[in-house]
Amino acid sequence: MKSFASDNNSGVHPNIMEAVKKANSGDFISYGDDVYTKKAKEKFQELFGEDIEVAFVLTGTAANVLSLANMLKPFEAVIAAESAHIYEDECGAPERFTGCKIIPIKHNCGKIKTDDIERFLDSIGFEHHSQPKVISITQATELGCVYKKREIEKITDFAHKNGLLVHMDGARIANAAVTLNMDFKEFTKDACVDVLSFGGTKNGLMMGEAVVFFNKELAENIKFLHKQTMQLYSKMRFVSAQFIEYLSNELWKKNAQNANNMAKYLSEKVKNLKNTEILFPVESNELFVKLPKESIEKIQQESFFYIVDKKNSTARWVVSFDTKKEDIENFHSILKKHI
Fold it and tell me: Which of 197, 212, 246 is the last residue of a domain?
């Protein structure tokens, strides 16, 4: 039975596995001084332009930590949605390794607005408060919604006018790009984002994320912090080889398109079930569904998933790059049986 608990539960795309296998031939200089890592960086330059800096890491948490570590001093703070991964799901790693406070604010489907950020500007210059410095947004959000380009531009314009920086957590950035029908550069660099955590693991990679600096001044200490944050992987070619394949022939797009399409298909199946409610717009590859409380355990026994809000019986279902229609139909038959 295909799992709908997380896109982290899915396997590795065959092309990615083959790329890793090919990289396993011969000896190469370690710690990223290899031809694969050079080529992978060139792939990112093709996407975003040559005036960027890129660092490869193993996990999404590491990408966020390394991004923020280069953007912040220990007395500074990050403003993010209450639902943000850096606030809720990284076990305090950003705060531990940067020494900085994360300030959570209210959101709508994971998206934040400048009106809710503005009041924190009063702390700037007041020595008793952590100093706001970074606004972190997630694209697509933890609730499956996607920022439109103009929404991002409004945040970046506000940030830069007030001496702040903008970080984007792009763990599911490919899903967002497909929804927006834009290339990555249009809603990141062109929208004046400063630093991007570029995800790959949730869309077919074995392991691997990238930190992309559009504001290269922030990458001044990247080679030292890359090592200090324990992400300067000695055999970096095995991460880099994945990105070369992932960014070739639009494999990223094909994978994300399938995930998004299957999420829509699942939503069509679910919306006709009695006593269920899809709580947020399905704009990427996640669904948040309110279920009858008495049905949850029965369904989970046949197909496990997470309950993200026990009080309101809310399930999160995540569709993957390799999900097929028959997987949806099998899951739907389980739902019909128990709801």
Answer: 246
3-state SS assignment for residue 136:
strand
Per-residue confidence (pLDDT) for residue 59, from 0 to 100: 97
CATH number at residue 323: 3.90.1150.10
CA R_g for the chain? 20
Same domain for 97 and 151, yes or no, is: yes
Q: What count of other Cβ atoms lies within 10 Å of the Cβ of residue 186?
A: 14
Structure token digits, residue 175:
């899903």
pLDDT value at position 1?
79
- In which element (H, E) is residue 315 found? strand 314-318
Give residue 271's domain range. 251-338
Entry pTM: 0.96
Assess contact for 124 and 112: CB atoms under 8 A: no
Q: What is the pLDDT, as a whole number, of residue 272? A: 87
pLDDT digits (tens, 9 = 90+) for 150-183: 999 999 999 999 999 999 999 999 999 999 999 9
Order of strands, edge to edge, in the sheet holding 277-278? 277-278, 286-290, 314-318, 306-309
Classify residue 7: in a domain, yes or no.
no
Task: Give the CATH number of the domain where residue 225 resides.
Answer: 3.40.640.10
- In this structure, are 322 and 184 located in the same domain? no
One domain, residues 226 and 292: no
Low-confidence stretches of the chain (pLDDT < 70) are: none
Distances (CA, A) of 85 to 142, 169, 190: 7, 8, 24
Three-state DSSP class for residue 174? helix
Number of domains composing the chain = 2
How far apart, in whole angstroms, are the C-alpha atoms of residue 22 and residue 13? 15
pLDDT at residue number 22: 97
How many other β-carbons are positioned within 10 Å of the β-carbon of residue 46?
12
Neighbours of 274 (CB within 10 A): 7
Q: What is the pLDDT of residue 70?
A: 97
